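hey m, so remember when u said the tokens were messed up on ur end? i reran from scratch. heres the input so u can diff it against urs
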Amino acid sequence: MGEYFAYITGVVTIVAFVIQIRDIFPKYREETKSALYIAFGVFLGTLITFFDKVQVKTQVDLHPVQVILIALLVILLISGVLILFSAVLCQDPRKRDEFYGVAGALVIVFFVSLVATGFSFLPGPVQREPEFTEQELIAAINHNVSINDYARALSMLKQLRSRFPQGDPRRSQVDNRIEEIKKRMANTLNLDNK
């Protein structure tokens, strides 16, 4: 039901927009402008409530800045299309030139935003090869635990943990080992205080 309402309000908004741009009813110019704003507001509200229920799961982790840049690109694209549509429908040559000028500025802003969005998706600095292999790190961790150097063992465990991607079962094993060593460290501190 809600999606049909979105379609209807979208069509009403487009019709009101065409009526306003073409100035079909010059006597009722202010009324059609108000109707356009109301229809557009209802349409946006319907879209927002419709998309509020939608959950999108992707394999890509997006930073909030990337989401904002993508939203800006979509808004600029939609605005540009509407302004070009307005320019085509406009009968006054002076207004049409103004529409084209705004559309040209939007194209420049769109491409600058597109470049910024592209740069935001570039990978970070190239990481150096790890100094130790995973097996060497594990051996060093075990050695540090055996000589009660828990701080160094924890540091190495965190380094090892950072090598495994999110969801890797080895990462949870490392987390368990970190907790175990933290408990040993706490027990050692308690014994020293007595």
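this time it looks ok to me. The chain has a mean pLDDT of 80. if urs says something different then somethings off w ur setup not the seq
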